[in-house]
Task: structure prediction
Amino acid sequence: MTRTTWTSWPTREALTRAARTRPRRVLTWSVRVGLLTAMLWGTFSGGRFGPWGIALGLLGVLGCAFAAWAFFRTSLEHRLWPSLGLLTLLMVTALGAQQAGADLLALILWGGCAVTALERLPLAAGLPATAVAFGAYAAVNTGGWLSTAMSTAGLSLAGYVLRLDAEARGNAQRLLAQERAAREAEAETAALDERARIAREIHDVLAHSLSAQMVHLEAARLLIEREPAGEFRDRVLERVVAARSMAREGLAETRQALSALRGEVSAVEDFLRQLVAVEPAQVSVVGERRTLTAEASQTVRRVAQEALTNVRKHAPGARVLVRLEYLPDEVALEVRDSGGHRPEGALSGSGSGYGLLGMRERAELMGGTLEAGPGEEGFVVSLRVPA
Result:
């Protein structure tokens, strides 16, 4: 054995119950209950105790059970000296029990200390502890050297087998965790590859198409402006300019969607400031800024776009206050305008295709809320989503 083998602890996966199957846990608890019952029987089977003696014996057995539980905890945490101290306490208790005539209790304590020391401690500490326990047992055992040797050999073998079994379960648990992590990484890589493919498709089809439309619309605008002024010419020019503006906005939103698919999304507060750059609006950010999840970030962006679009349609010229607040477990967005008339059904949708009712459904699917309605002066859109 190498020096590392002698000084290394069994892994936490090997010592914890998480790596054990349900039948194994049931068997373990059955053994523990059986040992506790045997300890109680070995303590009181003689029937020579008065009321105070029974109470003292019961407290002693419960104390031993608590010390054993504490040893399991300290060994799980790889704390050597507390573990050895608890084993020493149990061995001293076993010696006292043997002197008091409770031979079965002493045998259980010595055997338990020997087996658990081999199973749960580094071998450099577990083997001496096991030797001390078996030495004390051999010194007081009157059953003959053969029975003592067979008991010692059997318990030693049991302790080492339990150690090997625990290490095997721990290794299996670690391999399972590594395999699970590898599968998650593979799934994440596949998702990123698929998002990149979708981004390329959108760029090659939609972005190119919108860019070409903008070029043709700009050319049409220049040609129309060369024509003599007139009512028909002005109406056509207005429509072409509006179509060009819509194509520009669609191209900007397409680029934002492509950036989101590629994981290159700018900070939400920067996006909001860019969004209101040409509006009579003010943006305020409250709380400790942090990176939001992709779903939360996209929801905040879309709701802000939709709310500003509604302001332009139904309250043109109104002052707008956009407030973004980072909360401990969520993010809140509030878009408030200074007033304007909104006809019935204003929330159902807009030219951008992202109605606030659709955004409300999207927020609810994420476990958030979206409220829109009249405020003290104008109209208020309030969003809260987990982030």
Notes: The first helix runs from residue 3 to 7. Residues 50 and 56 are 10 Å apart (CA to CA). Strands lie at 281-286, 320-326, 330-337, 369-374, 379-386. Confidence is low (pLDDT under 50) at residues 342-353.
